[in-house]
Amino acid sequence: MPPAKKPPAAPPPPKRRLLHRDKLEAEIVAQAVRAFAECGYEGASIAAIADSSGLSKQNLMYYFPTKQALYRRVLDDVLDEWLARMDSLADDGREPHAMLRAYIRAKLRFSREQPWASRVYAMEVIGGAQLYGAQIRQRVVPLLRKDIAVFEKWMAAGQIAPLNATHLLFAIWAMTQSYADFAAQMALVLDRQQLTGQDFDDAEQLITRMVLAAVHVAPQRAGAQQA
């Protein structure tokens, strides 16, 4: 009598399959971030990203059918984290100086912890944001306006000096993001392999001092409050 056939193995539970997919996609995106940062969109190779992820090109394309789809996912993740750090400025629970210090610290932490991600975003913008401009306009502009409204509220209350909040935010972005986008140049000038934690601490102190000096309460307004 022939042996009984074993029943087919049951597929893994849906939750386990989803966890596996999420983990695999996260690994693909992590490898893609560095590839796009080092080679740009045109120079990055799907085959090379697949190989560094331990997959065949065909397997990778099951999750991301095109290079553009993978690139957009990378930029979506970068922008999610970048905007989350920007959003802290609108916390009404703290006074302006404390919020600005926290904002600068968060932006520098992003540059330190996610340098490849910052460089991918910078390269897209430097190239004219041809593939991601619409998303930047839709997501960054509303939050920028929200942050500008916070500055205007502070100015109206006499908590900070009158200034152009838009350009102050541009300056903060430039100063903090340069520690990711131009880290190689900074390390060369400093004659070391890479920037250190102390470099980021020193940058935070200096940038914070510069920004707080720019937003000081105007003398005449301070005098009026004391009268």
From TrEMBL:
DNA-binding region: 45-64
One matching Pfam family: TetR_N
Keyword check for DNA-binding: yes
All residue ranges annotated as the HTH tetR-type domain in the record: 22-82
Top-level taxon: Bacteria
Keywords: DNA-binding
Signal sequence range: none
Keyword DNA-binding set for record: yes
This protein's name: TetR/AcrR family transcriptional regulator
Organism: Janthinobacterium fluminis
